[in-house]
Write a structure and sequence with these properties.
Elements lengths: L4 H4 L6 E3 L8 H9 L4 E4 L8 H19 L8 E6 L7 H11 L3 E5 L4 H8 L4 E6 L2 H9 L4 E5 L5 E2 L5 H9 L6 E4 L5 H9 L4 E4 L1 H4 L8 H9 L5 E4 L7 E4 H6 L19 H13 L16 H31 L1
Parallel strand pairs: 1-9, 2-3, 3-4, 4-5, 5-6, 6-8, 8-9
Antiparallel strand pairs: 7-11, 10-11
Length: 332
């Protein structure tokens, strides 16, 4: 199946930037789009709710102005993440703003709802739904989502436990539409590996946390740079949903990362009060994926994307050379 038009346009890299709670703000999204990768942010980051209109206006206007003054540049589309869990009491308001602004890509999380998909389709937008299993992927497509984000083991923030190779293969057995892979991708070689395994795009979050434009405190950015996969802890204590967090931030919050109790998932709530509680959790205990060992310094978004592209191009050339060598060996 061909990709939808909005995802078939040229990009600097086959990358969609994941929406980062608190850290994804217009400055980050605009920089991502202007660097040639799809930028995104959670609607709930715009607080109060009235700010969402201003954010969408700014992103659209600045990207359009940049494209006009840089006709040879690759300016990517943007996406907005919606928590569609029924306790999100901003959902109706935020969807009305999204429809009014004709947001090209909507990323839905924590529930697949046909009425949300229909609303986005009404103006020609597409919906990508994030899942942690093949079963959830089937449900999302059955309810009208256009594409799937496979959130595999090692992804930052809320994440699953399945191997990316296993999860992608199971989904690709029946689904030939847009498929993105999330999970420990912070190097250009990993982007190529995601495509080789069956994904259309890499879904990258943690690598952008350390960038200049991300709204993360300096200590968070430095911890991303200083940490590796061994410093990631998987727990559902902080939000009721399992996710990956930086060990150092858990220790700084006065907790033992090796002895965290389990939260009750049934208590999960995304109402206004809970959103503020979750914001505090993410402010004090920092999410991150296992791929951060590849992040050695804090860069601008443009510098990070340029570095990823160099790594990606080198990996493609290396793979082509390896394949050619094997072919020559087979006929010699």
């Amino acid at each position: 199946m061909a990709l939808p038009y909005v995802l078939s346009r040229p990009l600097a890299l086959p990358v969609v930037a994941a929406p980062l709670f608190i850290s994804s703000v217009p400055e980050l999204v605009i920089a991502q789009c202007q660097a040639g990768v799809v930028g995104s942010f959670p609607a709930l980051n715009a607080r109060p709710a009235s700010l969402l209109t201003d954010w969408l206006d700014r992103i659209a206007e600045e990207n359009a102005a940049y494209a006009q003054t840089h006709p040879d540049a690759t300016v990517a589309p943007y996406a907005v993440n919606q928590i569609v869990h029924r306790s999100n009491d901003r959902l109706e308001h935020d969807m009305n703003v999204i429809i009014e602004h004709r947001v090209p890509i909507v990323i839905t999380s924590l529930g697949a709802r046909p009425e949300i998909n229909d609303a986005v389709h009404s103006y020609g937008g597409i919906v990508l739904h994030d899942v942690i299993s093949n079963e959830f992927a089937r449900k999302a497509i059955d309810k009208g989502a256009d594409g799937i984000i496979a959130v595999a083991a090692g992804a930052g923030g809320h994440a699953g436990t399945q191997s990316p190779l296993a999860l992608l293969r199971e989904i690709r057995e029946w689904f030939d539409g847009p498929l993105l892979l999330s999970g420990a991708i912070a190097h250009g070689r990993s982007i190529l590996a995601a495509l080789a395994a069956g994904a259309d795009f890499a879904y990258i979050g943690s690598a952008f946390l350390s960038t200049t434009e991300a709204k993360a405190v300096p200590a968070y950015k430095q911890m991303i740079v200083d940490s590796t996969a061994k410093d990631i802890v998987y727990s559902n204590l902080f939000t009721g949903v399992h996710g990956n967090y930086l060990r150092g931030s858990i220790e700084a919050a006065g907790l033992d990362p090796d002895n965290l109790h389990q939260s009750d998932p049934s208590a999960m709530d995304f109402g206004a009060g809970s959103a503020m509680k979750e914001a505090k959790a993410w402010r004090d205990v920092w999410g991150s994926g296992q791929g951060i060992g590849a992040i050695k310094e804090s860069l601008t978004v443009a510098q990070l994307v340029a570095r990823l592209k160099v790594q990606y191009d080198e990996a493609r050339q290396s793979l082509a050379a390896t394949v050619l060598a094997h072919e020559l060996d087979s006929v010699s």
